[in-house]
Specification:
With 269 residues, the protein is α/β, with parallel strands linked by helices. The chain has a single domain, classed as TIM Barrel (Alpha-Beta Barrel). It is 42% helix and 14% strand. The protein has 10 helices and 8 strands. The protein has an 8-stranded parallel beta sheet with strand order 1-2-3-4-5-6-7-8. Helix 6 links the parallel strand 6 and strand 7. Helix 3 runs parallel beside helix 4. It is globular, with a radius of gyration of 17 Å.
Length: 269
């Protein structure tokens, strides 16, 4: 069975059909869907999803594009919430955290401060992290070397082979999803082909980063992970069953609590 290591099922885009989307993904063979938070405004929403659906696990953290709205005491609240939930099998990571320097120099110092403080939270509770690394891979790696954690996932990876190897040496897996399905995405497709399969996990980032067959005007959803897995299989010239088995193993290795959640699926109604 497949694991979607990154999707935002709490997003407003799913308000009209959330249950149907989870049902469709489950029936398609997606056994677990990891839902990372992005700020305090959706901490409770991702927790509630995990309580309502055994197929959903969650991560708690401040996304770098939301830290402008954060206050230092919000980090205290995050730490307290992680402490309260640390024994829950559904809390699989601290995330989505990281850096985003797509807009040069935009709140760089604030992003770095919140990223480091959240790495410290992950250290304190021995949790992996789910990373956002857009246009900031080297800076993220620098922080990880100073504040090492027990691994995690570099979400929507789009770096070099050398950067990929740097992440794997630090105990990380690399997330591949809809961007890989476009013929013009030569760099990502080359990476997906060249990297050792042990470094790769699958994700959708739903409702964002739609695959080629959904298109930029469509809504991505976890059920698309089945066809995304097939794309990776085709790129590598292996069977899709191999891709499913290996990426599942990679996912449960890097997010260990997923192993306890990946039990026989319950039927949704």
């Amino acid at each position: 069975m497949l694991i979607d290591t990154h999707c935002h099922l709490d997003a407003a885009e799913f308000d009209d059909d959330r249950h149907a989307q989870i049902l469709a993904a489950t029936r398609a063979g997606v056994q677990q869907m990891v839902v990372p938070a992005v700020s305090k405004d959706n901490f409770q929403a991702v927790i509630d999803l995990s309580l309502q659906y055994t197929q959903c696990s969650f991560a708690l953290g401040w996304h770098p594009l939301y830290v402008d709205a954060a206050q230092p005491n919000n980090l205290t609240h995050l730490r307290q919430l992680v402490a309260e939930r640390q024994n829950s099998p559904a809390l699989v990571a601290v995330g989505e955290i990281g850096l985003d320097f797509f807009v040069p120099s935009h709140n760089k110092e604030t992003q770095i401060y919140f990223f480091i403080e959240q790495l410290k939270i992950a250290q304190a509770f021995d949790l992996p992290v789910i990373l956002h690394v857009r246009k900031a891979i080297d800076d993220v790696l620098k922080c990880l070397r100073r504040y090492p954690v027990c691994g995690g996932i570099a979400h929507a990876f789009n770096g070099s082979v050398q950067q990929a190897e740097a992440f794997t040496k630090l105990g990380f897996k690399l997330g591949f999803g809809g961007a890989m399905t476009y013929d013009r995405a030569l760099k990502i497709r080359a990476l997906a082909t060249q990297l050792d399969l042990s470094a790769i996990v699958l994700e959708t980032d739903a409702p964002d980063i739609p695959p080629e067959w959904v298109g930029n005007n469509g809504k991505n959803s976890p059920k698309e992970l089945v066809k995304i897995a097939q794309v990776l299989a085709d790129l590598r010239g292996v069977s899709v069953s191999q891709i499913i088995e290996i990426t599942r193993k990679n996912s449960t290795h890097i997010l260990p609590k997923l192993a306890t959640l990946c039990t026989p699926l319950e039927v949704l109604h």
